Task: structure prediction
Amino acid sequence: MTMVVTSATPSRVERIVNRVIGVSRRSVVASIGVVILSAFALIAIFGPALVGVDPVHPYLDAILAPPSGRFWFGTDGNGMDVFSRVIYGTRFAFGIALPAVAVSLLIGVPIGLVCGYIGGTIDEITMRVMDAVRIFPTIILALAVVAAAGPSLINVVLVIGILDAPVFVRVVRAEVLALRSSTLVESAVAAGNPTWRILFVHLLPNAIQGATAQVAVRAAWAVRISATLAFLGVGIQPPTPEWGAMIRQGAELMSGGQWWVAVFPGCALILLVFGFNLLGDGLQDILDPRRKVSAR
Amino acid sequence: MSGSSFLRFLLRRVFLTLPLLLGVVFVTFMLVRIGGHDPVALLAGPTATGPQIEAITRELGLDQPLWKQFALYLAHLLQGDIGQSWVSGRPVLQEIGDRLPITAELLFWGIGFGALIGIPVGLRAAKDHGSLFDHVSRVVSLLGFSIPTYWLGLAALLIFFYLLGWAPPGMGRISLMAIPPPRITGSYLIDGLLTLNWEAARSAFAQLVLPVVCIAIVAAAPIIKQTRAIALEVWSSDYVRYAQASGLNSGMLRKLVLRNSLVPVTTFIGTEVTGLIGTTSLIEYVFAWGGVGQYGLNAIIQGDFSVVQGYVLTLALFSVIVFLIVDIAVMWLEPRAAMR
Result:
């Protein structure tokens, strides 16, 4: 028993390492994305402890101080250290985006499976509802719903997650439609499997691949939307160190030349979203080789 | 295509959007209900007595069951009444109607320039696919996906207004010094030109540049990506390869690819418009543009949900109309599409 475990563990690690190397060789874009995201993840985990400056401590002697040796990114209108706030902001960015995408997956994947496999009226109604929701600009709909439901952290996560679920419904549904008449499903039905088992044991692992490339792209979107909500004062409120809220605080100061309050959180936001987008774009290449190889 | 079959196609399309519109109206109706916001308290004011509050509740139909409220809302909607602002008491329809051309102007130039940059870059990237140009344009387009619109606007103001002094401050559609031209189309630039008021037209143009460039950058990123993907597929199609093998010169090949990419690219830009309406609202907010977008976002921030409802509904209707126009354009570009 112990023998089996010890010999299995290295091979699994090896497999993962090989896989990572394989992915990075197949897509440079995706690996740059992974590097950026890893850096941000490390900052989110260890950054706050290393900085050691309270992000909401007002230094009343240094209100709106420009970047200097003491305050690397300057201070904001409350005299709070912008550098420390940008570092703490990574936690909010990940802390909203990842749960939001999880909510989307939890809602979207089962609905996509059912719609694709069972079809009929359920499918028809679901697709029509999603068409109606798609008519609205997502940013505006998210803003309006969060404003109506109340700007709490939970609401922001839920609203972003629910509004983005149709993406996964569509991807999974399309995959299932293609698999429905395959021998895989036929034999599973012939063997007498119940429908739920066919859905979650036979179809899910095969249909989930298309969704995985979308996860990174949707995380990028979630980071952007949550920052937009905070920028408009509808999401997380200052002085919480969230990037969108920080940009809001610095917006008025921008035309007056006190650029550091809004520029640094903005750059962090762009870089993190860029990392997610690079990864997502690269994964799409890997999963759908036609996209890359095709021409000529 | 003959006139009568065109009309039939158009009528069928309009008819098909009816259930969609009903869904849209239902979503906007529910929007106000989910938060349990009470307009009565806002409308009645702090000094209202019990009977007064009851009267207002009855007047708004809030004592009725939900389905009846929806029917009432729908009935008002069909008469062109989308309610009054909870804050100012003014009719929402008129407020939005007055601001519509202001937003349309921004959106039109923004998407226009976005397409003007995006389509050629995407086509070139597909033609020279795998080249340095392709890689650079891909990364730049991904970067465009990643920049928040409002931050781009703020950065543009910092650089071009504060540092360089080339652009006017982001405070509205015309300089405070200029005398606004009389309203003809609602666009200060066009009205200024029509009334030969050069001073106003020049100022309106200067105010337009930065917001339009910001929208164009955000619009161009997805257009580049999608145009490249579409053109790549056309390049690898049998008919293009046949044409290539037959020795067509590169100019004619490019024309062939362009013609066959045009329909899916047009459709894509049409679907993009929905998202760009949201983008435009944020840009309006940053530049204090005073159009529908700023009006709606302010209402969201203030919790004026009657206006929010009207605003969201207007945006959705606008998207539906754009989809309809795209359908017509596609049919004109490719008559085969109407057969389906």
Observations:
- Chain A has a mean pLDDT of 80.
- Residues 39-291 of chain A form a domain with the MetI-like fold fold (CATH 1.10.3720.10).
